[in-house]
Every structure is written in structure tokens, then in C-alpha cells.
């Protein structure tokens, strides 16, 4: 049974969402570089310190689901059924992430990200961080016997599959194409 979060956790989550939604609305309306942290805090009716207690930087406001995505990726590895192979589990989760990031309404957000050097840099560092976390989870899996380098490589390839598919005209097909190569590389590393 899943334990329901308490009142305090629900309030914190609601405040975090309110700040992120406000920031995104302002960024899309006025431009990312034209909106400051104080603008977001004022519009969300929170103190700047409250904003920073939820988000480490202005860039983090755009990638509000960063921690959820990382957790989902590592859970795809550690939470899979005992008989489920690694690569199909990763493929399934990357498909879900790509669907989320290419859903209706996502295009303006990605145009904003692609148009900002700071956001592109943050997104790249986030993907690298996710890849390292994923690699550690893969390496810790007692069901596999690949080297640490093989685990890091597959994790990076998986994150690159996400980035390549998100930018593709056919994201779902792109995930499958890249994961066929990932599976061949993983099998070759055995």
C-alpha cells in the first residue's frame, strides 16, 4: 500500500508546482532572458528565499520534473521484474519520457530551451547527471556482469537516445532504432 503524503508535504508540492507553473508561463509569454527570479517570486506570491528553497537556479524552474525523470530511469532498472532484461526496461522508460517531452504543448518549451544557451547547457548537464545515476544503478544490479565502463556507456547511450528521439520527426521510431543499437552493444559487452 502506498502511503499518502502528509499535509506539509502536500503544501510543499503545491508551492513547488505553483512556482514552476508561474515561471513557465512568464518565460513563454515574455522570454526566458526577460524574466528574473524576483519576477517569478512576485507573480507566484512567494518570497525569493522560498523559490530558492524549491529550485536551485533559474534554469531549474524550466526542468521542474528533473528529479522525477531521474528517479523513473533508475527505477526502470532496479524495479524491473527478476526475469526482465535490462535493455527492454530502459527502452520502455525512455519511450515514456519521450512521449512526455513531445506531447502537445511541449514544442514552445523546447523552442525556448533551444533558443537559450543557459538552458541548453543546463539540459546537457542534467542528461549527464541522469546518465551517471543510471550507470551506478545498472552497475549495482546483481543480475548483470558488465564492466563499469559498459554500464556508463549504456547509460549515456540511453540518455542520448532520449535526446535524439525528442528532436526527431518520428520520436517513437527513433527510440526503437537507437535501442536496437544499444541492445547490440550491450550484448557485445557480455
Summarize the structure.
By secondary structure, the protein is an all-alpha fold.
Notes on the protein architecture:
This protein is mostly helical and 190 residues long. Helices cover 75% and strands 0% of the residues. The chain has helices spanning 7-30, 37-44, 48-54, 58-62, 66-78, 86-101, 107-114, 117-140, 148-166, 171-188. The longest helix is centred in the first third of the chain and has 24 residues, at 7-30. The protein is globular and about 55 Å long. It starts with 6 loop residues before the first helix and ends with a helix.
What topology emerges from the helices and strands here?
Blueprint: H1 7-30, H2 37-44, H3 48-54, H4 58-62, H5 66-78, H6 86-101, H7 107-114, H8 117-140, H9 148-166, H10 171-188
Major sheet? none
Please state roughly what percent of the residues sit in beta strands, choosing from under 5%, 5-15%, 15-25%, 25-35%, 35-45% or over 45%: under 5%
Gyration radius from CA atoms, angstroms: 18 Å
Tell me the span between the first and last alpha carbons: 38 Å
Question: What ranges have pLDDT less than 50 throughout 5 or more consecutive residues?
Answer: none
> What are the secondary-structure elements, in order, as H or E?
HHHHHHHHHH
Provide a count of the helices: 10
Spell out the key features of this protein:
190 residues, mainly alpha
